[in-house]
Amino acid sequence: MNAMRRWAPRVLVGAALAILALAAALAVLPARWLITLLPADAPLAIVDASGTVWAGTALVALGPPGARTTLPDPIRWQTGWDAGLRALVHHPWLECSQLAIRAGWSGLGLGPCQVRLPAETLATLGAPLNTLKPSGTLRASWPGLRLPYRGGVPSGQLVTLDWTLAGSALSPVRPLGDYRVQMTGDNGAAHVSIATLRGVLQVQGEGSFSPTAAARFSGRAGPAPGTPDTTIMSLQGLLSAIGRRSGDETLFQFGR
């Protein structure tokens, strides 16, 4: 018993020193360590990073392995502690001054924000977008979100994506139109819909996905009523590439 009393202070001091050494090591953990976190087959990869995991910069590449495209501007982040682990992310595409990401015990918090980027970026995600070679402007926005680690997709409005002045290398028609994609959560699943705001090419569709079920989406595309014959002819190559033709329309489907 006396021996235990003599050793107890030494054990406590040793544990405290080990904790301090671990904290010091984590404080200078290089940002390049983040490169190994993403799976090799992920559609996004960190190709270069500098600084530490707590404050640094990194270049991000989009696309499948072997065909990725590096984005021109690096992201910057700064991590701190504010009632939990919080990261502030900066990038020129963010229309909010900074994107706040907070990690909690039950889920990940995402601050409200908007991101604006060229539609050409979609081509980096691989087929079939690299064949369509889209152009125009994308703007995605979302409210403050709480994404649980378990339990599926949160309920309510998730993301709204607007594609304006849309175009494709498969058609000389410019612009094709303006389109909106909305994603909402309900009963643990995400429901996705696409609608045409205006334009000569009408597109509509809907689908859903969840962590426990395969994604599915189906829709149709075709010329707007009253579209001149010459314009309809100019849309044929694009419509044929999107999916299966049915009269003047094209039917497309992903998943089951």
From TrEMBL:
<dbReference type="GO" id="GO:0015627">
    <property type="term" value="C:type II protein secretion system complex"/>
</dbReference>
<protein>
    <recommendedName>
        <fullName>Type II secretion system protein N</fullName>
    </recommendedName>
</protein>
<comment type="similarity">
    <text>Belongs to the GSP N family.</text>
</comment>
<keyword id="KW-0813">Transport</keyword>
<keyword id="KW-0472">Membrane</keyword>
<keyword id="KW-0997">Cell inner membrane</keyword>
<dbReference type="Pfam" id="PF01203">
    <property type="entry name" value="T2SSN"/>
</dbReference>
<keyword id="KW-0812">Transmembrane</keyword>
<dbReference type="InterPro" id="IPR022792">
    <property type="entry name" value="T2SS_protein-GspN"/>
</dbReference>
<keyword id="KW-0653">Protein transport</keyword>
<dbReference type="GO" id="GO:0015628">
    <property type="term" value="P:protein secretion by the type II secretion system"/>
</dbReference>
<dbReference type="GO" id="GO:0005886">
    <property type="term" value="C:plasma membrane"/>
</dbReference>
<keyword id="KW-1003">Cell membrane</keyword>
